[in-house]
Amino acid sequence: MPPSVSRLGRLADLPVLLVAVVWGSSYLAAKGVTTADTVLAVLVLRFGVVLPVLVAVGWRRLRALSGAQWRGAGLLGLILAGIFLLETYGVVHTSATNAGLIISLTMVFTPLAESRVRGVRLPGAFLAAAGLSVAGVALLTQGAGFTAPSGGDLLMLGAAVARTVHVLAMARMESVRGADALSLTTVQLGGAVAVFTVLVAVPGTGASPWAAAADFGAGDWVWLVYLSVFCTLFAFFVQMWAVRRTSPSRVSLLLGTEPVWAAAVGIALAGDRPGWLGLVGAVLVLVGTAWGRSVADKGRASAGEPPQATGTPRRHTPETSGTPGR
């Protein structure tokens, strides 16, 4: 590889690694600004800030989408709305560390589901890695002793399953194949925001966006802007930029460090204390997901397919998936 190409790849690594750090910290940010009564309001505000920017940047490409692509992206937006609802309600009721590590099971669930759909047998090494990850989550959710997982833990597990469904839907829906990534993201987010707006208008579903915004302090606005600008806009555009300047597998590897940063941020900044069982579980989750990802990517490489990027169902390369950030 020429030195100039190698240097370019290393330069592209830094912002991608920063995206992984930002995504890892997004669970703490969501906990900082969201309560059980303001989940829908925060989601409307968070993505209501992002959507006009995406529309303005990609207006011409949006107009070029076919009717089938609009419908397909809209359907994906409904799934995406479910993911964000599960994640946000989940993170309110569990720790930032647990949230970041449990959602990483998407990296294990996706190849498992894909193998069932395709009727392909996974190697024993992957099944062992999957078992290690599941055992890690079981330990992680016990804290200092063996108790039932919290409701938030179960919601995050549901979010990991929903992300897997989203990945498979994007991979198998003929209508969105070949669609521009920015346009696909914009329509999906638009569909998700429409769902949040309808739900928040239903009596008893929590505070309205206006009421929540009126009660926000300076710290709440900082967290909200961080989620909107960095965890969504910045993350998406960095992925699109990086995948054109380096390889999808390199981007995938760097984004795959997200669970490490989620655990580090949760323990160092949020004061999470998972106990010795939880720490063992966290290590098992990280080892299992990294091992499983490696085995799955080797299988794709042998089949001539590009590795998947975490976070771009999280996380189908960023250039083609059209999936927004956390």
UniProtKB/TrEMBL annotation:
Pfam families the UniProt entry points to: EamA
Domain EamA: 13-141, 152-290
Membrane topology, from the record: Multi-pass membrane protein
Transmembrane segments: 12-30, 36-58, 70-89, 95-113, 125-145, 151-169, 181-201, 221-241, 253-270, 276-292
Subcellular location: Cell membrane
Region entry Disordered, spans: 297-326
Keywords on record: Cell membrane, Membrane, Transmembrane, Transmembrane helix
Protein family per UniProt: Belongs to the EamA transporter family.
Protein name (Swiss-Prot/TrEMBL): DMT family transporter
Origin species: Streptomyces galilaeus
